[in-house]
Design a protein that fits this description.
The chain is 0% helix and 53% strand. The termini are far apart. With 686 residues, the chain is mainly β. Among the domains are: 211-371; 373-457, no CATH class; 469-680. Strand 8 and strand 9 (81-89) form a beta hairpin.
């Protein structure tokens, strides 16, 4: 039978506990309850108020204050929180819950707003607590130990103060959660899994011991020191560990296994070894250096393909330190910096492999730098990103050969091409080169040599600057925001030549020949083609069925073909820009939806001009709102044969003077209406 003592008043009352129960509070059985109801108070004057079994229940608006409650296996309940405690609970303190040696805290899945203070040894934290405070647990000092056996993700920081955490199972840290200051984590083979958001780990020395496994789940900036004691693992899941201001230390022999991570800031960030036999083993690790570094103790052992981006920095193994590459390739990249044998000592200075040893066919290979002869890019991992830190010159005898799938990131630098009658950029059969964030200066499409089923993708922020008039006879893929600057030259699309567009392309200062609907593929509703100071020569019809176009400065459409507008997206003629339809050319407005207003003028300086050309509208009709309609020489207009106003070619909307379209006939110009109706519907322009 459950027995309850309920202390309450109808308004605000108080119960005073003095020393008459010196033996503590014994609630008959574990099912007994002392409940402090809303608007009631329990004032504890005794220093020996103990709950040995049963439950102390505090309603949300109840008050408990005075001396601490001593829990010896009793339960504290408040709201949805239920805690089995062997601890002091001081409701008036800034750290109400005190584990002061051989004490425990076990919570169900409830919200806890009170902080925990831990001192002494053999304390325990269990259950599924959820804190509202970002620093809910604090250890006193190096004499303090706390065993952590919670089942949920820890959602509060633990302040170690040189104390010790002991893990009984994997410890999952919530997003933005840290183990702060200095201290030791005794893992006993269990994992510590960091949160899924980028994290800045502050200063201090964290020692991971007893077979620790530390797992990153997003990028981490390490400003302190992580010490790994004995056999340890650090896995990155492809994340970046930036230890530019930090240190990674190996205590004892190790080894410390580091895998699937990018280590950034090596140089100012340091590896430390306690003894000559201390070892770090790399597998699938990329190290980016920011300064020279000399090892004087310990060993680096590479048994899984890895890379070091040395740039212009030197990594040296001296004294009793060593580098071993066992059965794999260790690539080092100088990027565009002149190679100086950046991993030292070289074989001639280390003939007995005392410092640098290659086992079982292991290889150290430079894959990029200032080349003598062709530069062959052959990263061990497909689509590995190769970056340059300054311009890269490509010229006869200094060709660029792509031997594996890769992404070339120019970091806003240029790939500068010299004049050549032969290919300068060669992609071997079946391989794909992705160019991004790079300027291709003095480029010619004839410089490209693609092997069977090979491919070049001009990706986001790539810009091509042509060196001369030239032809395109292959279909190339453009992704993201890309630019072709013709420098006033002619770019001709021959049979088989074309653009597969995913997103946006801008043509600048170019004369484009041979563009037709068959030479553009991959368009979707988000695709944009921008013209700036471009002449578009049509010898066949060009149909725009998806996406839209934009005009900056000028677009002249000439030739004998038609520009057929069959998209349901709006296109823009920007302010001070002119789109001109030349003699024998036609602009045919034929959208798939009943929308007459898809050609947008940014202001009255936006001009749509007929210079001997023809404007044709389908039964949808076409309405020009704002901007200027300009006629030069003999020009022609043809609308729907029905002569219905709603299907006409209309100027203005008859409602808003802001939408009036200026009609400007240049001297001696003639405009002929071949069919249909033209509706002048301006309000202010009469």
């Amino acid at each position: 039978m459950v027995k309850k003592i309920i202390l309450s008043t109808f308004v605000v009352g108080s119960i005073f506990y003095s020393s008459f129960l010196q033996a503590g509070l014994n609630l008959w059985s574990k099912d007994s309850t002392l409940q402090i109801a809303n608007s009631s108070a329990l004032n504890i004057e005794s220093s020996n108020f103990q709950v040995r079994q049963g439950s102390l229940v505090k309603d949300r608006l109840a008050i408990i204050h005075g001396n601490p409650v001593i829990f010896n296996g009793g339960t504290y309940e408040s709201g949805d929180l239920e805690i089995l405690l062997t601890a002091l609970y001081d409701f008036d303190a800034s750290y109400p819950i005190i584990l002061n040696g051989d004490k425990s805290f076990k919570a169900n899945a409830g919200i806890i707003s009170d902080k925990i203070w831990v001192e002494g040894e053999n304390n325990r934290l269990e259950g599924q607590p959820i804190w509202t405070d970002s620093s809910g647990v604090t250890l006193k000092d190096f004499h303090t130990t706390l065993t952590v056996a919670i089942q949920n993700a820890l959602n509060t920081n633990i302040v170690l103060n040189n104390g010790v955490l002991v893990l009984e199972n994997d410890l999952r840290l919530g997003d933005d959660i840290l183990l702060t200051s200095s201290g030791q984590i005794r893992c006993f083979g269990h994992k510590v899994l960091l949160g899924a958001k980028p994290l800045s780990w502050p200063g201090g020395n964290i020692t991971w011991s007893d077979t620790p496994v530390v797992q990153l789940n997003n990028n981490v900036i390490l400003d302190g020191r992580w010490t790994f004691s004995g056999v340890s693992s650090l896995t990155g899941n492809g994340s970046i560990l930036d230890f530019s201001s930090g240190k990674i230390r190996v205590r004892g022999d190790g080894p410390l296994y580091i895998n699937n991570v990018k280590l950034k800031g090596f140089g100012s960030g340091k590896f430390e070894f306690d003894r000559p036999n201390s070892q770090i083993r790399f597998s699938n690790v990329e190290i980016e250096m920011n300064s020279d570094y000399t090892f004087t103790s310990g060993g680096i052992y590479v048994d899984g393909g890895s890379a070091i981006v040395t740039k212009g920095n030197i990594i040296n193994f001296d004294s009793v330190s060593s580098l071993t590459v066992d059965g794999v390739v260790l690539n080092y990249e100088t990027l565009s910096v002149l190679d100086s044998n950046n991993i030292q000592p070289t074989r001639d200075l280390d003939p007995n492999s005392k410092h640098v040893a290659l086992l079982n066919g292991g290889l150290i290979r430079r894959i990029i730098g200032v080349q003598v002869g062709p530069l062959v890019l052959n990263p061990p991992t497909p689509f590995q990103t190769i970056r340059i830190s300054e311009n890269l010159n490509v010229a006869p005898t200094k060709e660029l050969i792509i031997a594996n799938d890769l992404t070339f990131d120019g970091s806003t630098n240029a790939m500068v091409f010299a004049k050549s009658q032969n290919p300068l950029l060669i992609v071997q059969p079946g391989k794909t080169l992705v160019l991004k964030n790079v300027l291709l200066q003095d480029f010619n499409f004839n410089y490209l040599n693609l092997g069977l089923e090979s491919k070049i993708i001009f990706d986001n922020k790539s810009k091509i600057v042509l060196n001369d008039s030239q032809s395109v006879n292959t279909t190339y893929t453009f992704r993201g925001d890309t630019i072709i600057d013709g420098q006033g030259k002619i770019l001709t699309f021959d049979d088989g030549g074309g653009i597969e567009l995913h997103s946006s392309i801008k043509f600048e200062n170019a004369v484009l020949y041979g563009i037709s609907g068959s030479q553009l593929a991959g368009w979707d509703d988000s695709s944009t083609m921008t013209f700036q100071n471009v002449t578009l020569y049509l010898d066949d019809n060009f149909t725009l069925t998806k996406g839209h176009f934009e005009v900056i400065d000028s677009l002249d459409v000439v030739g004998t073909g038609s520009f057929i507008y069959s998209t349901d997206k709006s296109s823009i003629i920007w302010e001070r820009a002119t789109m001109t339809i030349g003699a024998n050319a036609t602009f045919y407005y034929n959208p798939p939806v009943a929308d007459r207003d898809l050609i947008i003028f940014k202001d009255d300086r936006s001009i749509f001009a007929l210079n001997g050309g023809t404007l044709v509208s389908s039964t949808t009709g076409m309405r020009l709102l704002g901007g200027t309609f300009q006629v030069e020489n003999d020009a022609f207009v043809a609308g729907s044969p029905s002569n219905v106003t709603s299907e006409s070619i209309e100027f203005g909307d008859g409602v808003n003077g802001y939408n009036d379209c200026i009609i400007n006939l240049i001297s001696s110009a003639n405009m002929y209406v071949l069919s249909g109706a033209v509706n002048y519907n301006n309000v202010l322009l009469q």
